[in-house]
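Propose amino acids for all 302 sites.
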């Protein structure tokens, strides 16, 4: 913007906890560093929420306005605090699972479903049944780009420069459920890069081996993201993105594996308030004639 001779305005909508790529790891601090590098003669005026106010002596003028703190989610019409549950699950060291569980139960009370399953086919059957006859509803698979265990399970999360030829993002999100390239076909997952900023009515997050609960903390395979300044933060944020795409709910598919950490991860999520998706029990019921809002039962079905 410095190259524009007269004047200009830049409007930046910055989501905290959304840094998933090289160069983004600094988060909001990266914006602060850029502003601190300005010359006082540049006459920049920055408007933002009070919690981002800089210390005195910065080369720009800061105007505080709390209306610029966009703290209310519009994505999850049934659960405005889903991001809080996800954030606490991804940051926990196992000390407050009871408190996290109460958050999940409040989400359940408002009609937002959080499920865990060890069987991907059960999750697929559940979604097809849940949205039968609702052609405008969208559900699909999501997966971390860096998970290496999923392809062997039939979840091809391969990501490369020709990915658009294999997963056409616009068609994947918008095509009719009968389209074989629609998300509702439940064939190809979108990664964190393809779903960031977008949403589904009900995603199935296919859990990978790049983030597993180990003893009392999250284990991140740092070798998968060696080019990053902070690979652990980016990995956590990738799962934060994947877990917060849902409007009606989310199902977390934790594959069965010889690695016991998958079992431990599933148990952690259940202890944190997620319900186990099981066979034979109706998992929801319409609350009105439109059938938009659903009530989840404590024990979920397929």
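Proposal:
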């Amino acid at each position: 913007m410095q190259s524009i001779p007269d004047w200009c305005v830049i409007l930046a909508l910055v989501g905290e906890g959304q840094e998933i790529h090289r160069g983004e790891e600094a988060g909001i601090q990266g914006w602060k560093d850029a502003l601190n590098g300005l010359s006082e003669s540049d006459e920049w005026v920055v408007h933002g929420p009070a919690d981002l106010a800089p210390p005195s002596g910065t080369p720009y003028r800061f105007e505080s306005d709390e209306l610029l703190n966009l703290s209310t989610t519009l994505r999850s019409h049934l659960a405005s605090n889903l991001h809080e549950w996800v954030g606490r699950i991804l940051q926990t060291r196992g000390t407050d699972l009871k408190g996290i569980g109460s958050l999940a139960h409040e989400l359940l009370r408002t009609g937002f479903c959080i499920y865990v399953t060890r069987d991907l086919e059960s999750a697929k059957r559940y979604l097809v049944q849940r949205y039968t006859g609702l052609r405008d509803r969208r559900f699909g698979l999501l997966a971390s780009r860096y998970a290496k265990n999923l392809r062997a399970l039939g979840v091809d999360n391969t990501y490369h420069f020709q990915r658009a030829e294999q997963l056409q993002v616009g068609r994947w999100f918008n095509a009719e459920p009968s389209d074989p390239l629609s998300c509702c076909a439940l064939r190809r997952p979108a990664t964190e890069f393809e779903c960031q900023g977008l949403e589904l009515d009900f995603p199935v997050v296919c859990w990978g081996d790049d983030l597993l609960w180990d003893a009392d903390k999250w284990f991140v395979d740092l070798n998968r993201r060696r080019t990053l300044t902070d690979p652990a933060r980016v990995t956590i944020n990738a799962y934060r993105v994947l877990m917060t795409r849902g409007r009606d709910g989310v199902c977390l598919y934790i594959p069965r594996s010889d690695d016991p950490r998958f079992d431990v991860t599933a148990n952690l999520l259940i202890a944190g308030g997620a319900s186990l998706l099981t066979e034979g029990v109706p998992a929801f019921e319409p609350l009105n004639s439109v059938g938009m809002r659903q009530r989840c039962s404590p024990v979920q079905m397929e």
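DSSP finds nine helices and eleven strands in the chain. Residues 285-294, 298-302 have pLDDT under 50 and may be disordered.
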